Amino acid sequence: MKFNIIAALDAQWGIGKDNKLPWPRLEGDMKHFHDNTTKAAEGKINAVIMGRKTWDSLPKKSRPLPDRLNVVLTRSDMEFPEGVLKADSFDGALKMLEDRDDVDLVWVIGGANVYKQALEHKDFHRLYATEITSEFDCDAFFPKFDFGMMHDPFAATDYKEENGIQYRFIIMTVKE
User: Fold this and answer.
1) Residue 145 in this model has a pLDDT that exceeds 80
2) What is the pLDDT of residue 92?
């Protein structure tokens, strides 16, 4: 089952600090994330796959992420709200979603270890990255990967600025 990765990363590929975003809230990026991960074919829903730390980082009022099928990767005995799926492996999550006919697109939303598994997976299709030009104090980083596996040129928007931070959206597709 093909899937996309969506991530925001700073100039040093930082994605988080103390299980939070290290930069001030960027409404444009939040809208980009929401719009991409929720827009599904009529009668279907998109799925988001995340690690347990990413789940924990979501504000309680936003858990589970609405209008998406939430899948959390964890080997612990954690309890999740009704409708949230739990998988003990990345492949297990994909298999779970593959067997459902109500799922349109699958999005991997973090964290670092889950991104690493996704980047190395044969069904990785497209990367939607918010490229932030500034550098922040981070303790979690997006994994380095081989850009040679991606089509060139890639699609990119013009830079935007919000809260004194410049960023743009990039879409890269894996070569078949």
Assistant:
1) yes
2) 97
CA gyration radius for the chain? 16
d(CA 22, CA 143): 17
What pTM was estimated for this model as a whole? 0.96
Which comes out higher in pLDDT, residue 6 or 154? 6
- Non-local CB neighbours of 16 within 8 Å, separated by 6+ positions: 22, 57, 110, 111, 112, 138, 139, 140
pLDDT tens-digit readout, 159-172: 999 999 999 999 99
| CA 11/CA 132 separation, integer angstroms | 6
CA distance 37 to 168: 17
Bond preceding residue 153 cis, omega within 30 of 0: yes
Tell me if the bond preceding 164 is cis, omega within 30° of 0. no
Pairing outcome for strands 14-16 and 140-141: antiparallel
> CA 82, 69, 149, 115 torsion: positive or negative?
negative
